[in-house]
């Protein structure tokens, strides 16, 4: 049997039985394994499975084996960034009780992007670790600014007001990014390419430098999972259950900002992953964040990997960056959520 629980919107949400969740977990793992294999095998150059095995072993004697050796770190980066953005979006939605929350929609990615561009253009920063710290700081400032602006006026920080504030902030920050990079011909082209969002040119060295930040972000978000379930009942009930609401919100938001900032620093501002994935995962496993967050991580990794594979296939021998693919998928999804009648709360 399945049980139901009230949501803040007053509707009943089905609690998925454990066996259903486990079944979906197996399905997601199988799909993710297939997408990972496809990411290594598929590209502008056709490779055989013997080439894949040789490339995984470190051999670069042939062009096919060299191609595999390049695709492996690219796949690892796509998995990591997709998981980070999806978990960040799920936590942001839980912290704000806002179904429109997403690092891209709320301007967090844009804040991280501007901070990185300023650090490169004005301070000559090239270290991946330094850029990550700067991106996290920029993401945090943007998040606080958008929430402050969205909280003004009657009704406080409603989902639509936050989305509008985020969209306006993103547009303004994009203009600032152009103003900073345009006079610098030596970095303008690379900044424009990076702004699209992609995982091309990934190396294990770059991924390793950002990995500690991702691990910390995942751990903080995971530690907030149980408290996020209480927040979904409302601040008063959460406080009555013994939760320190302000501390929970601050900790969850910090974990989400770290994940979004680190992902943006290494792959550019990739949008809509944190919006689409948590909503789909709720349909599969329910609203319990102890299940939702790991499922979002797996599904986000799969979505970004699938987008990367698709981008390599549809425009051979050229490629379409994953940021464009996710925008094509996420923009209609965002419009559909906005058009829903009960958009004020999860």
UniProtKB/TrEMBL annotation:
Keyword Hydrolase applies: no
Cellular compartment(s): Cell membrane
InterPro entries for this protein: ABC_BtuC-like, ABC_transptr_permease_BtuC
SUPFAM superfamilies, A to Z: ABC transporter involved in vitamin B12 uptake, BtuC
Main location group: membrane
Keywords: Cell membrane, Membrane, Transmembrane, Transmembrane helix, Transport
Record-linked CDD domains: TM_ABC_iron-siderophores_like (cd06550)
A Pfam family annotated for this UniProt entry: FecCD
Membrane topology: Multi-pass membrane protein
Transport recorded as keyword: yes
Transmembrane segment boundaries: 22-42, 75-92, 104-125, 131-150, 162-182, 266-285, 292-314, 320-338
Family under the similarity heading: Belongs to the binding-protein-dependent transport system permease family. FecCD subfamily.
UniProt cross-references to PANTHER family, sorted A to Z: FE(3+) DICITRATE TRANSPORT SYSTEM PERMEASE PROTEIN FECC-RELATED (PTHR30472:SF1), FERRIC ENTEROBACTIN TRANSPORT SYSTEM PERMEASE PROTEIN (PTHR30472)
Record protein name field: Iron ABC transporter permease
Species: Kineococcus glutinatus
């Amino acid at each position: 049997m399945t049980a139901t629980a009230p949501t803040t919107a007053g509707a009943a949400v089905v609690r998925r039985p454990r066996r259903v969740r486990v079944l979906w977990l197996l399905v997601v793992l199988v799909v993710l394994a297939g997408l990972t294999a496809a990411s290594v095998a598929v590209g502008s150059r056709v490779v055989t499975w013997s080439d894949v095995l040789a490339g995984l072993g470190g051999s670069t004697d042939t062009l096919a084996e060299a191609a595999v050796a390049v695709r492996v770190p690219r796949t690892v980066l796509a998995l990591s960034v997709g998981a980070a953005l999806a978990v960040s979006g799920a936590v942001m939605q839980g912290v704000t009780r806002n179904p429109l929350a997403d690092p891209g929609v709320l301007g967090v990615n844009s804040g991280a992007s501007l901070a990185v561009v300023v650090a490169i253009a004005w301070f000559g920063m090239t270290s991946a670790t330094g850029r990550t710290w700067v991106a996290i700081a920029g993401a945090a400032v943007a998040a606080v600014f958008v929430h402050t602006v969205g909280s003004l006026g009657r009704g406080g920080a409603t989902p639509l007001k936050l989305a509008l504030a985020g969209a306006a902030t993103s547009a303004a920050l994009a203009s600032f990014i152009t103003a900073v990079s345009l006079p610098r011909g030596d970095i303008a082209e690379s900044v424009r390419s990076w702004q699209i969002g992609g995982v091309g040119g990934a190396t294990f060295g770059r991924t390793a430098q950002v990995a500690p930040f991702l691990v910390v972000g995942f751990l903080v978000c995971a530690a907030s999972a149980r408290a996020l379930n209480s927040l979904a009942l409302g601040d008063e009930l959460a406080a009555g259950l013994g939760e320190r609401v302000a501390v929970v919100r601050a900790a969850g938001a910090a974990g989400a900002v770290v994940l979004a900032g680190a992902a943006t620093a290494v792959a550019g501002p990739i949008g809509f992953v944190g919006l689409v994935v948590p909503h789909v995962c709720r349909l599969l496993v329910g609203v319990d964040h102890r299940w939702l967050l790991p499922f979002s991580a797996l599904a986000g990794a799969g979505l970004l990997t699938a987008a990367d594979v698709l981008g390599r296939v549809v425009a051979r021998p050229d490629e379409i960056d994953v940021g464009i693919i996710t925008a094509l998928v996420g923009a209609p999804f965002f419009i559909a959520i906005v058009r829903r009648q009960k958009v004020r709360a999860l």
